[in-house]
Design brief:
Blueprint (H helix, E strand, L loop, with lengths): L1 H15 L17 H4 L10 E10 L7 E12 L4 E12 L4 E12 L1 E4 L2 E16 L7 H6 L12 E15 L3 E8 L18 E11 L11 E11 L2 E12 L2 E9 L5 E3 L2 E2 L1 E12 L2 E10 L4 H4 L2 E10 L2 H10 L8
Antiparallel strand pairs: 1-2, 1-17, 2-3, 3-4, 4-6, 5-6, 6-7, 7-8, 8-9, 9-10, 10-11, 11-12, 12-15, 13-14, 15-16, 16-17
């Protein structure tokens, strides 16, 4: 327990010192709560959608990262718009360092031609960034063998700030492509004196849905969905690439994360992060997903990978759902 807390102190000090650049949490099942990926996905449903996501990254490393994401979005057919609410919480260092964000989203749907659409979007969020020093053990405590620490007089520090994001999504019945830019205003998140600006995050994402044809006529044909998600934040970037098979009521897929041929972390150290296995099932209007990241970087032996759980519920009157489903074009991934 002491080792876990002291490691947490290291993580917290690095993040609040103002010399380290924060990186946003990333989800393997990034299309399960797509409004976290981009506000342009708000309202890409028949009617209402509720989504919850939980991620435990590197559980074998003391003081690692635990993230939660809760989202709601709604399509407003009368004004060709989508709206959304999103809440994100990220904890590191045994919960000592916390990041909580609550935001609202708006997307406007433009019909370019029959079954071809464009959606510009905006997101406004309010963020609380805090550290709880009582959960940490500092080096001077360990060296003296006591409980008195350099930071003992700090009951906790926090900072609040506004955060602005935007997105653009183009889609047809079979494919979609989008870009998003988060932290456009680069807010100051420093918990100590000075500045620690949140670097802008750029993401580019897209995919294609293939129908699997068979000799047997079925109401719902199986599909293969291939997708990618590239993101860059300051000097760090990463690519998720993979596919999964949908055959109601189940789905399963395989994903790779890394940029091995184009970029290395350092000479002789390829940019390989993880291979993820994704699986799930659908029950009525509910979808449940689970993924496990198999770490393939140098952390592989000690990281414990990453576990991720998702739950999605789509609420719609059955008669309205059938009527709107005939008019709505929603090709995006569903897991």
């Amino acid at each position: 327990m002491r080792h876990r807390r002291s490691t947490g102190a290291l993580v917290a000090v690095l993040c609040v010192s103002g010399h380290a650049s924060a990186q946003d949490p990333h989800y393997t099942q990034f299309y399960s709560t797509p409004t976290y990926l981009s506000p342009a996905f708000a309202g890409t449903t028949v009617q209402s959608r509720f989504a919850f996501q939980f991620r435990d990254q590197w559980p074998a490393i003391p003081g690692a990262f635990v993230s939660y994401n809760l989202a709601y979005d709604q399509y407003l057919s009368a004004v060709n718009s989508g709206i959304g609410l999103i809440a994100t919480r990220d904890q590191a260092g045994s919960g000592a360092l916390r990041y909580t964000s609550v935001g609202v989203q708006y997307a406007y749907e433009i019909r370019l031609k029959r079954k071809v659409f464009l959606r510009p979007a905006l997101q406004l969020a309010y963020v609380n960034h805090a550290v709880d020093y009582s959960r940490l053990i500092f080096s001077d405590q360990l060296s003296r063998g006591g409980d008195v620490a350099t930071y003992e007089s700090y009951d906790g520090r926090h900072v609040n700030y506004a955060d602005i994001g935007s997105g653009l999504l183009f889609f047809t019945p079979k494919m979609w492509f989008g870009i998003a830019l988060q932290h456009m205003n680069e807010p100051n998140q420093s918990l100590l004196e000075g500045e620690a600006r949140v670097p802008r995050k750029f993401s580019m994402h897209g995919g294609y849905r293939f129908k699997v044809r068979s000799g047997v006529i079925k109401k719902k044909q199986p599909s293969i969905v291939a997708a990618f998600n590239y993101r860059a934040q300051e000097k760090y970037d990463q690519l998720d690439l993979g596919a999964y098979v949908e055959r109601d009521p189940v789905f399963a897929g395989l994903w790779y994360r890394g940029i091995p041929l184009m970029k290395a972390y350092q000479p002789g150290y390829n940019n390989n992060d993880a291979i993820a296995v994704v699986m799930g099932f659908k029950v009525a209007d509910w979808r449940f997903g689970y993924s496990y990241d198999i770490t393939i970087s140098r952390l592989a032996i000690n990281s414990g990978g990453a576990h991720e759980l998702t739950m999605v519920y789509e609420l719609a009157d059955k008669r309205k759902k059938r009527s709107m489903a005939r008019r709505r074009v929603i090709p995006c991934a569903k897991f």
